[in-house]
Amino acid sequence: SLGQLVAGVAHEINNPVNFIHGNLTHLNQYTQDLLRLIHLYQKHYPQPHPEIQTEIDDIDLDFLVKDLPKILNSMNIGTDRIRQIVLSLRNFSRLDEAEMKPVDIHEGIDNTLLILQNRLKAKPDRSEIQAFKEYGNLPQIECYAGQLNQVFMNLLTNAIDALEEVIANRPFYQSPTIRIRTEILNKNWIQIKICDNGCGIPEQVKNRLFDPFFTTKPVGKGTGLGLAISYQIVVEKHGGQLNCTSAPGQGTEFAIAIPIRQQRNRDALF
Fold this sequence. Notes:
By secondary structure, the protein is α+β, with helices and mostly antiparallel strands. It folds into two domains: 2-92; 102-259, Heat Shock Protein 90 (2-Layer Sandwich), CATH 3.30.565.10. It is built from eight helices and seven strands; from the N terminus they run H-H-H-E-H-H-E-E-H-E-E-H-H-E-E. The strands form two sheets. It has a five-stranded mixed sheet. It has a two-stranded antiparallel ribbon with strand order 1-3. A hairpin with a 5-residue loop joins strand 6 and strand 7. Helix 1 (2-44) runs antiparallel to helix 3. The longest helix has 43 residues, at 2-44.
């Protein structure tokens, strides 16, 4: 499953990154010790031997002394960033939570956005896709967290694909946007809406969106299973609703409605 794949990748990345990150602390300390020793030499031997002075000039020691701590700091920031991404991947997969339990839906959305960050940021041929979060004050939701994270991944990936299609056809399109809204519908239900201002979906396509293997993407880019699986997770696994509102030129909105507690999922939404 996607969750097992993600968890496996996260585990394989986590071990070497922790090794590097842990050793950077020692490397930084050793570097500071050596730089302090060099400073003492310069203080007590201001006129070095010509051969030493030549080497100082060749390696540009002044620049090295200033730049080396910056390099180590950037490496520390980089490995810390990787560790955050790995944590997000592990939270995304949530393999340790195979049973239904109360979870923070917003955490799952945030983790998914972090994983997709590389697809959202600006590219040479397009501007950044901005993701706006409009979170309501939701209670913890009883659900299969890993499965719902997969739904968020599928819907957000589709939104990014739709916006990239618009940008490809309209090079001067400057405001690609995704909005994620969450709200309480009533005492038993909450709703998550994922909206994009892409090209929209024709009615004949919209009627088949949740059919297995149906896709409008080029060969090799889409399997046609993402929305079908999402529908199964929301409707069959959680007793919820997954609806799409769209029209050509007006963007697309997917609305997920799920019960706050599964024992109440027999209560009608409307």
